[in-house]
Design a protein that fits this description.
The protein is α+β, with helices and mostly antiparallel strands. It is about 40% helix and about 25% strand. It is built from 7 helices and 14 strands. The chain has helices at about 65-70, 135-145, 150-175, 185-200, 220-235, 235-250, 255-295; strands spanning about 10, 20-25, 30, 35-40, 45-50, 50-55, 60-65, 85-90, 90-95, 100-105, 110-115, 115-130, 150, 205-215. It has a 5-stranded antiparallel beta sheet with strand order 6-5-9-2-13. Strands 10, 11, 12 and 14 form a 4-stranded antiparallel beta sheet that branches. The chain has a 3-stranded mixed beta sheet with strand order 1-4-7. A hairpin with a 2-residue loop joins strand 5 (about 45-50) and strand 6 (about 50-55). Helix 3 crosses helix 4 and helix 6 (about 235-250) packs antiparallel against helix 7. This is SPFH domain-containing protein. InterPro entries: Band_7/SPFH_dom_sf (IPR036013), SPFH_YdjI (IPR033880). Pfam families: Band_7_1.
Length: about 325
């Protein structure tokens, strides 16, 4: 910055500005006559003297300490910069932008489910948005003891609260544990409100909370997919046929061992389908039989003439009343 009035001019600014920091503290240096305060876009600067907040500056640009900053500080209005001594004060730079952070449960959450004694394990992923909204609380709770505060530390605080909140709102809003995505908006809204109450304690606020996906164990997800496929097909026979075709396709190009395994599975599937076909045929026969019994059977009209052959043994009757071979009445 050069020299001002023959005195050393230091620059008060966020050194090595990092996008992942919520605040950074400029301290352990003397503010001397001719110093400049530089505030970049997306930053606010807070002057602290003896641990007390003296002023907040939100306009971006370069400002002269003596003529533009000191006159607006509450307890330092009468301070006169000497030529050889400076003022030791702290300047806290605040990142004012809104942060978007990805989150995910570190391990599966076991949701109570009556058919599973250990519960249904579920993992959840999404994003949340946050920013600083209360400087005094942030200074009192965090900045008073830290040189800087990163967004990763906020994420760790949120993740520590997330598991019990997920369980609370999934059980409250998730009517079907196998279809939680349909209720994700209500679940996310409730979790976001609870997290906002917690982050307000450190001077921050949750501006948005989103759930991107619910992940089930592989075997549970496979079962869900099969049930969904079954409901889409609507017919068990067609569903089994499709399963057999998919199995044959998956078996192509594999090793001999895999082919044998696929063949065995195909035989088992064929036996199941054969049994189902037999069962279906029996049902059809039973239905057709009941229909035939329900309809009147037409009886042949007796013309009064005697048969030429015995209906019992086939011997020619020659017009007699009884069969000459078996004695059956004609």
């Amino acid at each position: 910055m050069g020299l001002f009035s023959g005195q050393f001019a230091n620059v008060i600014e966020w050194e090595e500005y990092r996008d992942d920091l919520i605040f950074w503290k400029w301290n352990d240096k003397e503010i001397k006559k001719g110093s400049k305060l530089i505030i970049r876009p997306g930053q606010d600067a807070i002057f602290l003297y003896n641990g007390k907040r003296e002023g907040i500056f939100t306009d971006e640009g370069s400002f002269d300490i003596e003529s533009e900053i000191i006159p607006f500080l509450s307890s330092l209005k009468g301070f006169k910069f000497g030529f050889h001594s400076g003022l030791r004060a702290e300047v806290l730079f605040i990142n004012t932008k809104e942060f978007t952070i990805k989150w995910g449960t570190k391990k599966a959450i076991n949701m109570p489910y009556e058919s599973l004694p250990g519960g249904l394990p579920i993992r959840v992923f999404g994003t949340f948005n946050c920013k600083v909204n209360d400087y005094l609380t942030l200074i009192d709770k965090i900045a008073g003891i830290k040189q800087q505060y990163s967004i990763e530390e906020v994420k760790e605080r949120v993740l520590a609260l997330l598991d019990p909140l997920l369980m609370k709102w999934i059980m409250q809003e998730g009517k079907d544990l196998f279809n939680l995505q349909a209720n994700s908006y209500e679940i996310a809204k409730g979790i976001g409100e609870d997290l906002d109450m917690e982050l307000m304690k450190i001077g921050m606020t949750i501006t948005g909370f989103q759930i991107a996906s619910f992940n089930y164990p592989e075997e549970i997800q496979e079962m869900i997919n099969k049930v969904a496929s079954h409901s889409m097909v609507g017919d068990l026979g067609r569903y089994q046929t499709m399963e057999m075709i998919h199995g044959m396709r998956r078996g192509r190009g594999r090793s001999t061992t895999g082919t044998v395994a696929s063949n065995v599975a195909g035989i088992q599937m064929g036996m199941m389908m054969g049994q189902q076909m037999v069962h279906q045929m029996q049902q059809n026969q039973a239905q057709s039989g009941s229909q035939s019994y329900s309809q009147p059977v037409s009886q042949p009209q007796n013309s009064g003439s005697k048969p030429n052959f015995c209906p019992n043994c086939g011997t020619k009757t020659n017009g007699s009343n009884f069969c000459s071979n078996c004695g059956m009445k004609l």
